[in-house]
């Protein structure tokens, strides 16, 4: 743990006047210790050890702690999810907990709350079936054809895959307006839990899976979460976990700069998390291209929601309840953020050290299978443990019946990616019309998102909308009426080039049994 002496001089001055020799030794000792303490005050220089040894029970305890902490965190934050947008959740807002059957009842009656877990399990179950080196196409198709509903980057990726745009393009900002959204951030827990103390291996897994639905800062959210889980096997010091994992993110990225601001704010103001929240609100609460969030209080961007995760970790100071409560009270995605914070801390301290008041209600639900999966928490513990053993051996470690030796990794930065380069949202223009056959609008912009949807009782119907820009046909957009495979926006284009543009929408296959609704247009400018 980091040493924070209140008055370092008082421990050493009494030795100063006893004898010349002792005085000289004392001065040298004082300087050495003072430098060490100063260094530890500003930044922790300790590295992940070269090797770690666990018994099977110890390793399983940490893996269980990660999954259990995530499940507790998402359950706790469920009642406030996106009900507080652009504002903190006040202290007098009480959140249910304490009922012995609370988790059991929530998992039974509100199974959709656990999307950040059953999304993980889509990939965990593919790894279980095909091995830890399962091909990305198998992971992508399992995700695209799963029975659960999706939103934002996940839904845009599903649409892309089902229409032939495969990873990594399915998550690329040119094809996915939600590339920077939170989606892979909330799904990356499994990557760190199957790569204990091997953050670069976790990043490799996230490179493959995370680009199914995200790019740039959206991808970095998942890389960062996976790295924190991974490093939590090597340390229970939350500052070390948060700062060491950040080494996996390129320093040039917006994501890195935002997380660094939170860390520095915590170091300067360690007693009030609201100071860090205010800083984020003023400096970083700026979604670029999400059709539901840009220029609005709603913010599902991975950057700010990841920041809320580490606010909980840093200001929670290792206290499990305080950690998930602070992450929840930051607002926005206030179930997924405490889930990540709780999972990372749960990994660091282990299942057996999660306070009983939090763990007891979970135990009653550990054999319930999550919606859209074949897996319960107890199944998940066993699968993740098996996958971790496979990767430990593959990466040079050793596994025996009574001892597991991990060849640890020092974190390395992944490549630099930035979505929507040099673009910023300027305004939303309300249209609010149903297409009959065609509609035209003009705008000065460098990028455009046309927000709308198809409505039809016939769920097999697929509307075809031709988009013409400056007299050139750009695309014939297919818009399914089936909600689970829907297209989230009518059209988007982030490479128009700055200038005056004329956009025409033409409905090619109109029917009286359907309508194409256009709501508003988000215009983007060059920075």
* Main sheet strand line-up: 4-11-6-9
Q: What's the helix-strand series?
A: HEHHHHHHHHHHHHHHHHEEEEEEEEEE
Radius of gyration: 25 Å
Outline the low-pLDDT stretches: 1-45
Task: Describe what you observe in this structure.
There is one protein chain. The chain is an alpha+beta fold. It contains 17 helices and 11 strands. Strands 4-11-6-9 form a 4-stranded antiparallel beta sheet, with no helix packed on it. It has a 4-stranded antiparallel beta sheet with strand order 5-10-7-8, with no helix packed on it. Strands 1-3-2 form a 3-stranded antiparallel beta sheet. A hairpin with a 2-residue loop joins β7 and β8 (about 470-480). α13 crosses α15 (about 335-350). The radius of gyration is 25 Å and the shape is globular. The chain starts with 19 loop residues before the first helix and ends with a strand.
What is shown here, in short?
This protein is an alpha+beta fold and 527 residues long. It is built from 17 helices and 11 strands.
Topology summary:
Blueprint: H1 20-42, E1 51-54, H2 56-77, H3 102-109, H4 115-130, H5 136-144, H6 152-162, H7 189-193, H8 199-210, H9 216-231, H10 238-245, H11 254-268, H12 273-283, H13 302-316, H14 320-329, H15 336-349, H16 356-363, H17 377-394, E2 398-399, E3 404-407, E4 423-434, E5 438-445, E6 447-456, E7 462-469, E8 472-480, E9 491-493, E10 499-507, E11 514-526
Antiparallel strand pairs: 1-3, 2-3, 4-11, 5-10, 6-9, 6-11, 7-8, 7-10
């Amino acid at each position: 743990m980091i040493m924070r002496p209140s008055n370092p001089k008082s421990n050493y001055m009494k030795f100063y006047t006893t004898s010349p020799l002792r005085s000289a030794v004392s001065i040298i000792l004082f300087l050495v210790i003072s430098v060490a303490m100063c260094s530890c005050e500003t930044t922790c220089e300790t590295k992940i050890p070269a090797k770690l040894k666990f018994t099977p029970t110890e390793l399983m305890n940490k893996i269980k702690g990660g999954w259990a902490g995530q499940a507790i965190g998402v359950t706790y934050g469920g009642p406030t999810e996106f009900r507080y947008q652009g504002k903190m959740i006040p202290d007098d807002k009480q959140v249910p907990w304490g009922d012995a059957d609370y988790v059991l009842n929530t998992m039974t009656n509100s199974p959709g709350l656990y999307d950040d877990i059953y999304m993980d399990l889509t990939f965990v179950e593919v790894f279980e079936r095909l091995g830890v080196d399962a091909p990305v196409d198998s992971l992508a198709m399992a995700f695209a054809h799963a029975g659960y509903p999706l939103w934002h980057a996940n839904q845009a990726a599903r649409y892309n895959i089902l229409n032939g745009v495969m990873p990594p393009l399915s998550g690329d900002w040119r094809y996915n307006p939600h590339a920077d959204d939170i989606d892979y951030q909330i799904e990356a827990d499994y990557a760190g839990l199957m790569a204990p103390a091997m953050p670069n291996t976790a990043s490799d897994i996230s490179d493959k899976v995370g680009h199914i639905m995200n790019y740039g800062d959206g991808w970095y959210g998942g890389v960062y979460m996976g790295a924190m889980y991974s490093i939590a096997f090597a340390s229970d010091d939350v500052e070390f976990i948060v700062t060491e994992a950040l080494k996996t993110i390129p320093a040039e990225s917006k994501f890195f700069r935002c997380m660094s601001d939170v860390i520095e704010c915590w170091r300067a103001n360690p007693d009030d998390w609201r100071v860090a929240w205010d800083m984020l609100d003023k400096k970083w609460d700026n979604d670029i291209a999400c059709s539901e969030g840009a220029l609005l209080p709603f913010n599902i961007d991975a950057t700010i929601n990841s920041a809320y995760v580490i606010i909980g970790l840093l200001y929670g100071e290792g206290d499990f309840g305080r950690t998930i409560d602070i992450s929840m009270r930051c607002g926005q995605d206030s179930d997924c953020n405490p889930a990540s914070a709780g999972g990372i801390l749960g990994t660091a301290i282990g299942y057996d050290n999660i306070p009983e008041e939090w763990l007891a209600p979970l135990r009653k639900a550990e054999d319930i299978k999550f919606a859209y999966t074949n897996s319960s928490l107890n199944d998940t513990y066993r699968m993740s443990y098996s996958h971790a053993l496979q990767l430990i051996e593959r990466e040079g470690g050793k596994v025996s019946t009574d001892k597991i030796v991990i060849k640890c990794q020092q974190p390395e930065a992944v490549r630099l990616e930035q979505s929507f380069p040099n673009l910023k949202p300027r305004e939303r223009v309300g249209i609010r019309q149903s297409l009959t056959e065609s509609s035209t609008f003009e705008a000065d912009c460098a990028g455009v998102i046309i927000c709308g949807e198809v409505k039809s009782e016939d769920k097999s119907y697929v509307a075809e909308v031709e988009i013409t820009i400056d007299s050139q046909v750009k695309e014939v957009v297919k818009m399914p009426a089936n909600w689970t495979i829907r297209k989230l926006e009518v059209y988007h284009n982030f490479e128009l080039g700055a200038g005056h543009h004329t956009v025409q929408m033409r409905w090619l296959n109109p029917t009286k049994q359907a309508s194409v609704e256009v709501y508003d247009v988000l215009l983007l400018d060059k920075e």
